[in-house]
Structure formats: C-alpha cells, structure tokens
Design brief:
By secondary structure, the protein is of the alpha+beta class. The chain has a single domain, classed as Alpha-Beta Complex (Lambda Exonuclease, Chain A). The protein is built from 3 helices and 7 strands; from the N terminus they run αββαβββαββ. It has helices at about 5-30, 45-50, 110-125; strands at about 35, 40, 65-75, 75-90, 95-100, 130-140, 145. Strand 6 (about 130-140) and strand 7 (about 145) form a beta hairpin. The radius of gyration is 17 Å and the shape is globular.
Length: about 150
C-alpha cells in the first residue's frame, strides 16, 4: 500500500503530538501524591486517579518514581528506569507501573511485556524472596493491566 505524503505527514504529526503529550503527562505523574488528606500534583490527574481505586495504592507518599535499576540479565548489563515503584517490606511484595501512552494497546505489547519482564528480573535480583508484580498503566484510558 502506497502512503501519500499528506498521510505520512499527518501520521508524523500525530506521533509527535502523542510523544509530547505522553512526555508531559509522564512528568506530571511523577509529582502525584494522594495519601490520607494529602493531595499533591496536577488536580485533573488526581481527579482521574481518585475514580480508579486500583490506581490509588501506587500514588501514596511511600511510592517512588523514576527509580533506576541495573544488573545483568543473561550475561548482559541492563540499566532501566521504573516509572513508579511501591515496596512493602512487611508483605515482601513489590508492585511497579510503567506508563504507556499508546491508543493501540496491541501494537507494541510484546516489546512492553519483555520490558516489564526485565524490570521484574532486575528487581528479583535486588530483592530475593519478594513477590514482584508489574503493570502497565495505559494513559489513553487510565486502565491498569498486569503484565508480570
């Protein structure tokens, strides 16, 4: 199928918009805290999160954002950054979220599953004996999907 220049430019423009919007939303999410009576960050995003009980545990004050993690997987050094991480030492569980802006959730799903599996493997190395749960937060519709 031949793509016209207009279609190509429209696609590039849409991708650029999605990238910029995703980067902006990602940055805003770093500063969200919803804990007891504390609400910090973008009020519109807080309003959305408050309507999603499954998201609220990830936005407490104890959650960490932009967490660097590194180690070896299959003999190769891997360095990654986890968007949001919550460690519970009492229950020995770690839950993490990676934000994705895609509208078409299936297009890159295998790539994303691999990415979250790497996060999980690196976390298992750093926290042996902990249960690791990894999720994608689809920012296009604010759905949380467990991947690991």
């Amino acid at each position: 199928m031949t793509q016209t220049l207009g279609n190509f430019l429209t696609g590039a423009k849409n991708k650029d918009f999605a990238t910029k919007n995703g980067t902006r939303t990602h940055a805003l999410l770093q500063h969200i805290v919803i804990d007891d009576n504390i609400c910090q960050g973008d009020k519109d995003i807080i309003a959305v999160i408050k309507t999603k009980p499954e998201l609220q545990p990830f936005f407490v004050a104890a959650a960490r954002t932009e967490v660097p993690i590194a180690g070896k997987i299959n003999g190769c050094f891997i360095s990654r950054r986890i968007d949001r991480l919550l460690i519970n030492h009492n229950t020995k569980t770690i839950d993490f979220i990676d934000y994705k802006t895609d509208i078409n959730k299936t297009e890159f799903i295998e790539k994303y599953k691999k990415q979250l599996k790497e996060y999980s493997e690196l976390l298992h190395s750093a926290y042996p004996g902990y249960e690791i749960n990894g999720y994608i937060l689809w920012l296009s519709d604010w759905k949380l999907e467990q991947m690991v």
